[in-house]
């Protein structure tokens, strides 16, 4: 088998020899500065070091203890005005630059293979330049974090999520006060004390009006799953909620509730459907049926915690608009929902 002008065997041999040489030179350089921390970004470097140490039978525990993951110091702690915590986006914000417009980790693999395949020095130069510029961006990021630590209290452009400085104009202060009032009354039992920016309609205007979406609305009719991966039988309600000591009779009426959720696995996730089933209790005094407490507790809820977490991630972390999230739910999970449900 041939690759360009060279056989596959020679290609593999050259790659293996280069890898071993680079690994040896890296260890030698690292050991020249035994007290220096080793900055990296993400989880790739620790895994690569572990894999190479095992392959070439080297003890790298001391090196692993010197690793400092800058991404761990940023994620959930420092929020830069960027769309993501990608090193390229953060680097461009703080003054880093890359010579190649398409520079990326994936592109660096392509340059590496092209260099081995053709032997042309331009690909080697592009690869070395990319790696150097990545390291320079990481160094700039480490310096920026050090500056934030040193000047966060005094710097006007840096604020704290838990104790905001709230540098605002007179109008801004009034808006803050209004929001504080809303937050104060935004408790679970807000039904009777809710804050509204719109006048309520008169009772005569709402009398007889049915709750829910209008006919023809996207969420007006929902097709529930025909099958459930898990069926959970729940205990029936024992006593009547109106006549506290009156025991309910077990009826033939059955209450059902489907919860759509996601199951996260090592290599991805899949959609699941759980069906809750339980006999309804019947009260002779009320002449009413009551669903099991577990099903009542689920209420109008349709999606499970993991599915809700996925939606929140799309909205908060990826900053996707609701219409895109709804489209993704339909494309990936065949779930059609109204924007109101999100």
What does this structure look like?
With 342 residues, the chain is α/β, with parallel strands linked by helices. The protein folds into 2 domains: 2-151, no CATH class; 230-341, no CATH class. Helix content is 44%, strand content 15%. The protein contains 12 helices and 8 strands. The strands form 3 sheets. Strands 5, 6, 7 and 8 form a 4-stranded mixed β-sheet that branches. Strands 1-2 form a two-stranded antiparallel ribbon. Strands 3-4 form a two-stranded parallel sheet. Helix 5 (87-93) crosses helix 7 and helix 6 runs antiparallel to helix 7 (121-151). The longest helix is centred in the middle third of the chain and has 31 residues, at 121-151. The chain is elongated, with a radius of gyration of 30 Å. Mean pLDDT is 78; it is low at 1-12 and 193-221.
């Amino acid at each position: 088998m041939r690759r360009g002008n060279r056989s596959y065997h020679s290609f593999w041999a050259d790659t293996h020899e280069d890898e071993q040489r680079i690994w040896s030179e890296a260890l030698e350089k690292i050991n020249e500065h035994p007290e220096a921390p080793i900055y990296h970004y993400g989880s790739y470097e620790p895994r690569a070091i572990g894999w190479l140490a095992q392959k070439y039978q080297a003890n790298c525990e001391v090196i692993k203890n010197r690793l400092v993951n800058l991404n761990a110091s940023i994620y959930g702690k420092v929020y830069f005005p960027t769309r993501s915590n990608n090193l390229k986006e953060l680097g461009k914000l703080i003054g880093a630059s890359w010579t190649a417009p398409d520079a990326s980790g994936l592109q660096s693999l392509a340059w590496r293979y092209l260099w081995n395949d053709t032997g042309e020095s331009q690909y080697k130069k592009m690869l070395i330049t990319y790696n150097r510029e990545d390291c320079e961006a990481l160094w700039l990021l480490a310096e920026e974090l050090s500056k934030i630590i040193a000047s966060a209290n005094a710097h006007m452009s840096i604020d704290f999520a838990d104790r905001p400085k709230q540098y605002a104009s007179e109008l801004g202060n009034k808006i803050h006060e209004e929001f504080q009032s809303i937050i104060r009354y935004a408790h679970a039992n807000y039904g009777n004390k809710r804050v509204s920016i719109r006048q309520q309609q008169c009772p005569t205007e709402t009398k007889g009006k049915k709750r829910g979406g209008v006919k023809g609305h996207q969420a007006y009719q929902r097709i529930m799953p025909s099958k459930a991966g898990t069926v959970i039988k729940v205990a029936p309600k024992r006593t009547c909620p109106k006549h506290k000591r009156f025991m309910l009779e077990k009826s033939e009426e059955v209450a059902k509730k489907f919860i759509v959720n996601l199951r996260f696995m090592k290599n991805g996730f899949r959609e699941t459907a759980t069906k809750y089933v339980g006999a309804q209790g019947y009260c002779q005094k009320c002449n009413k049926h009551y669903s099991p407490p577990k099903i009542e507790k689920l209420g109008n809820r349709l999606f499970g915690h993991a599915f809700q977490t996925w939606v929140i991630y799309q909205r908060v972390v990826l900053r996707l608009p609701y219409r895109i999230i709804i489209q993704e739910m339909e494309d990936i999970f065949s779930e059609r929902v109204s924007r109101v449900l999100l």
